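Closing statement on the D-4-phosphoerythronic acid sub-project.
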Amino acid sequence: IKNYDEKLAVAKKLAALAKDGDIIGFGSGSTSYLAILELGKRVKNGLKIIAIPTSHEVSLLCAALKIPTLSTNAAKPDWCFDGADEVDSNSWIIKGRGGAMFNEKLTMSLSKKVYILVDNSKIVKKLGTNFPIPVECVRASLLHVKENLLKLGAESVAVRLAGKAKDGPIITEHGNIIIDAKFNKIGKTLEKEIKSITGVIESGLFIGYNIELIKA
Ligand code: DER
Protein backbone atom coordinates (compact mmCIF):
# COMPACT_ATOMS: atom_id res chain seq x y z
CA ILE A 1 0.00 0.00 0.00
CA LYS A 2 1.39 3.40 -1.10
CA ASN A 3 2.10 5.83 1.79
CA TYR A 4 1.43 2.95 4.18
CA ASP A 5 2.75 4.65 7.34
CA GLU A 6 0.66 7.80 6.82
CA LYS A 7 -2.43 5.79 5.97
CA LEU A 8 -1.97 3.57 9.02
CA ALA A 9 -1.64 6.61 11.30
CA VAL A 10 -4.90 8.02 9.90
CA ALA A 11 -6.57 4.60 10.16
CA LYS A 12 -5.68 4.31 13.86
CA LYS A 13 -7.02 7.82 14.56
CA LEU A 14 -10.31 6.89 12.91
CA ALA A 15 -10.65 3.54 14.68
CA ALA A 16 -10.31 5.26 18.06
CA LEU A 17 -13.51 7.25 17.38
CA ALA A 18 -15.82 4.21 17.39
CA LYS A 19 -17.98 3.55 20.45
CA ASP A 20 -20.33 0.72 21.49
CA GLY A 21 -23.63 0.78 19.62
CA ASP A 22 -22.35 2.80 16.65
CA ILE A 23 -23.69 1.98 13.19
CA ILE A 24 -20.82 3.00 10.93
CA GLY A 25 -20.60 3.39 7.14
CA PHE A 26 -17.42 1.61 6.06
CA GLY A 27 -15.71 3.21 3.05
CA SER A 28 -13.68 1.42 0.39
CA GLY A 29 -10.07 1.73 -0.72
CA SER A 30 -6.75 0.98 0.94
CA THR A 31 -6.94 3.65 3.66
CA SER A 32 -10.43 2.52 4.68
CA TYR A 33 -9.15 -1.06 4.56
CA LEU A 34 -6.52 -0.27 7.18
CA ALA A 35 -9.12 1.52 9.32
CA ILE A 36 -11.37 -1.54 9.13
CA LEU A 37 -8.51 -3.79 10.20
CA GLU A 38 -7.99 -1.50 13.22
CA LEU A 39 -11.72 -1.58 14.00
CA GLY A 40 -11.61 -5.37 13.65
CA LYS A 41 -9.01 -5.52 16.41
CA ARG A 42 -11.31 -3.48 18.69
CA VAL A 43 -14.31 -5.67 17.81
CA LYS A 44 -12.21 -8.70 18.76
CA ASN A 45 -11.66 -6.96 22.11
CA GLY A 46 -15.38 -6.48 22.65
CA LEU A 47 -16.36 -3.27 20.77
CA LYS A 48 -20.00 -3.57 19.69
CA ILE A 49 -20.52 -1.88 16.29
CA ILE A 50 -22.45 -2.58 13.09
CA ALA A 51 -20.94 -1.81 9.67
CA ILE A 52 -22.67 -0.68 6.51
CA PRO A 53 -20.23 -1.76 3.79
CA THR A 54 -19.78 0.23 0.56
CA SER A 55 -18.40 -2.57 -1.64
CA HIS A 56 -18.10 -6.32 -2.11
CA GLU A 57 -14.49 -6.01 -0.87
CA VAL A 58 -15.57 -4.37 2.39
CA SER A 59 -18.44 -6.84 2.89
CA LEU A 60 -15.99 -9.74 2.56
CA LEU A 61 -13.52 -8.03 4.93
CA CYS A 62 -16.27 -7.50 7.56
CA ALA A 63 -17.20 -11.19 7.30
CA ALA A 64 -13.57 -12.19 7.77
CA LEU A 65 -13.26 -9.88 10.80
CA LYS A 66 -16.66 -10.98 12.19
CA ILE A 67 -17.97 -7.40 12.14
CA PRO A 68 -21.77 -7.57 11.80
CA THR A 69 -23.19 -5.71 8.80
CA LEU A 70 -26.47 -4.19 7.64
CA SER A 71 -27.50 -2.92 4.22
CA THR A 72 -28.26 0.70 3.37
CA ASN A 73 -31.96 -0.31 3.35
CA ALA A 74 -31.80 -1.72 6.87
CA ALA A 75 -30.23 1.16 8.76
CA LYS A 76 -28.78 4.66 8.54
CA PRO A 77 -25.19 5.08 9.74
CA ASP A 78 -24.55 7.24 12.81
CA TRP A 79 -21.38 8.26 10.98
CA CYS A 80 -19.18 7.03 8.15
CA PHE A 81 -15.58 7.13 7.00
CA ASP A 82 -13.97 6.85 3.59
CA GLY A 83 -10.85 7.72 1.65
CA ALA A 84 -10.41 10.14 -1.22
CA ASP A 85 -8.28 10.44 -4.35
CA GLU A 86 -8.08 14.24 -4.19
CA VAL A 87 -9.22 16.92 -1.71
CA ASP A 88 -8.90 20.63 -2.38
CA SER A 89 -8.99 23.66 -0.06
CA ASN A 90 -12.81 23.82 -0.29
CA SER A 91 -13.00 20.16 0.82
CA TRP A 92 -14.30 19.28 -2.62
CA ILE A 93 -13.40 15.67 -3.31
CA ILE A 94 -12.68 13.26 -6.14
CA LYS A 95 -13.20 9.61 -5.18
CA GLY A 96 -13.79 6.37 -6.99
CA ARG A 97 -10.37 5.03 -7.92
CA GLY A 98 -11.72 1.86 -6.30
CA GLY A 99 -14.97 1.99 -8.26
CA ALA A 100 -17.36 2.03 -5.27
CA MET A 101 -18.41 5.67 -5.42
CA PHE A 102 -22.16 5.02 -5.79
CA ASN A 103 -22.43 3.17 -2.47
CA GLU A 104 -19.93 5.58 -0.93
CA LYS A 105 -21.94 8.68 -1.92
CA LEU A 106 -25.21 6.98 -0.82
CA THR A 107 -23.71 6.08 2.56
CA MET A 108 -22.27 9.58 3.02
CA SER A 109 -25.69 11.06 2.17
CA LEU A 110 -27.29 8.83 4.82
CA SER A 111 -24.72 9.67 7.50
CA LYS A 112 -24.97 12.42 10.10
CA LYS A 113 -21.17 12.77 10.19
CA VAL A 114 -18.59 12.04 7.45
CA TYR A 115 -14.87 11.51 8.09
CA ILE A 116 -12.55 11.50 5.09
CA LEU A 117 -9.18 9.84 5.65
CA VAL A 118 -6.38 11.54 3.76
CA ASP A 119 -2.63 11.22 3.50
CA ASN A 120 -0.77 14.26 2.23
CA SER A 121 -0.59 12.91 -1.34
CA LYS A 122 -4.35 13.50 -1.64
CA ILE A 123 -4.31 17.25 -0.91
CA VAL A 124 -4.33 19.22 -4.19
CA LYS A 125 -4.42 22.91 -5.05
CA LYS A 126 -6.63 22.24 -8.06
CA LEU A 127 -9.15 19.39 -8.20
CA GLY A 128 -8.60 17.15 -11.21
CA THR A 129 -4.81 17.44 -11.11
CA ASN A 130 -4.02 13.77 -10.57
CA PHE A 131 -7.24 11.79 -11.04
CA PRO A 132 -10.13 11.58 -13.51
CA ILE A 133 -13.72 11.81 -12.29
CA PRO A 134 -15.16 8.28 -12.39
CA VAL A 135 -18.74 8.18 -13.71
CA GLU A 136 -20.85 5.08 -13.13
CA CYS A 137 -23.36 4.61 -15.94
CA VAL A 138 -25.80 2.14 -17.44
CA ARG A 139 -24.08 0.11 -20.19
CA ALA A 140 -26.66 1.07 -22.83
CA SER A 141 -25.86 4.78 -22.27
CA LEU A 142 -22.12 4.54 -22.87
CA LEU A 143 -22.03 6.50 -26.16
CA HIS A 144 -24.49 9.14 -24.88
CA VAL A 145 -22.63 9.65 -21.60
CA LYS A 146 -19.21 9.87 -23.28
CA GLU A 147 -20.49 12.49 -25.75
CA ASN A 148 -22.08 14.60 -23.02
CA LEU A 149 -19.08 14.43 -20.71
CA LEU A 150 -16.97 15.81 -23.55
CA LYS A 151 -19.59 18.54 -24.08
CA LEU A 152 -19.26 19.40 -20.37
CA GLY A 153 -15.56 19.97 -20.97
CA ALA A 154 -13.89 16.61 -20.28
CA GLU A 155 -10.43 16.45 -21.86
CA SER A 156 -10.80 12.68 -22.27
CA VAL A 157 -13.26 9.89 -21.49
CA ALA A 158 -12.39 6.20 -21.20
CA VAL A 159 -14.30 3.09 -20.17
CA ARG A 160 -12.56 1.51 -17.16
CA LEU A 161 -11.28 -1.87 -18.25
CA ALA A 162 -10.76 -4.86 -15.98
CA GLY A 163 -7.29 -5.47 -17.39
CA LYS A 164 -5.80 -8.88 -16.60
CA ALA A 165 -8.81 -9.78 -14.46
CA LYS A 166 -11.10 -9.96 -17.49
CA ASP A 167 -11.19 -8.71 -21.06
CA GLY A 168 -13.48 -5.70 -21.40
CA PRO A 169 -14.97 -3.27 -18.82
CA ILE A 170 -15.15 -3.69 -15.06
CA ILE A 171 -18.70 -4.16 -13.75
CA THR A 172 -19.68 -2.38 -10.52
CA GLU A 173 -21.57 -3.74 -7.46
CA HIS A 174 -24.75 -2.61 -9.24
CA GLY A 175 -23.93 -4.14 -12.63
CA ASN A 176 -22.91 -0.91 -14.32
CA ILE A 177 -19.74 0.31 -16.02
CA ILE A 178 -17.44 3.22 -15.22
CA ILE A 179 -16.25 5.95 -17.55
CA ASP A 180 -13.17 7.82 -16.27
CA ALA A 181 -13.49 11.46 -17.37
CA LYS A 182 -10.48 13.78 -17.09
CA PHE A 183 -11.56 17.35 -16.27
CA ASN A 184 -8.98 20.16 -15.95
CA LYS A 185 -11.60 22.71 -14.92
CA ILE A 186 -14.08 21.69 -12.19
CA GLY A 187 -16.78 24.26 -11.34
CA LYS A 188 -19.31 24.08 -8.52
CA THR A 189 -22.13 22.88 -10.80
CA LEU A 190 -20.18 20.06 -12.49
CA GLU A 191 -21.33 17.32 -10.08
CA LYS A 192 -24.99 18.09 -10.82
CA GLU A 193 -24.35 18.55 -14.55
CA ILE A 194 -22.75 15.12 -14.78
CA LYS A 195 -25.60 13.57 -12.78
CA SER A 196 -28.15 15.09 -15.18
CA ILE A 197 -26.83 13.14 -18.19
CA THR A 198 -29.30 10.35 -19.01
CA GLY A 199 -27.71 7.02 -18.07
CA VAL A 200 -25.42 8.37 -15.35
CA ILE A 201 -25.95 6.61 -12.02
CA GLU A 202 -23.42 8.61 -9.98
CA SER A 203 -19.97 10.20 -10.18
CA GLY A 204 -16.95 10.35 -7.92
CA LEU A 205 -17.12 14.16 -7.71
CA PHE A 206 -18.26 15.41 -4.27
CA ILE A 207 -18.88 19.16 -4.10
CA GLY A 208 -20.07 20.88 -0.94
CA TYR A 209 -20.43 17.81 1.28
CA ASN A 210 -20.13 18.45 5.01
CA ILE A 211 -17.01 16.43 5.82
CA GLU A 212 -14.28 16.33 8.43
CA LEU A 213 -10.78 15.45 7.20
CA ILE A 214 -8.64 13.09 9.26
CA LYS A 215 -4.99 13.64 8.34
CA ALA A 216 -1.79 11.89 9.34
O1 DER B 1 -12.19 4.47 -4.48
C1 DER B 1 -12.37 5.21 -3.52
O2 DER B 1 -13.30 6.00 -3.41
C2 DER B 1 -11.30 5.23 -2.46
O3 DER B 1 -11.82 5.66 -1.23
C3 DER B 1 -10.20 6.18 -2.94
O4 DER B 1 -10.78 7.41 -3.19
C4 DER B 1 -9.06 6.28 -1.96
O5 DER B 1 -8.37 5.08 -2.05
P1 DER B 1 -7.05 4.85 -1.21
O6 DER B 1 -7.43 4.98 0.24
O7 DER B 1 -6.66 3.44 -1.61
O8 DER B 1 -6.04 5.89 -1.64
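The pocket of D-4-phosphoerythronic acid is lined by residues 27-32, 82-85, 95-98, 100-101, 104 (CB under 6 Å). With this model delivered, the sub-project is considered complete and its resources will be redirected to Aim 3.
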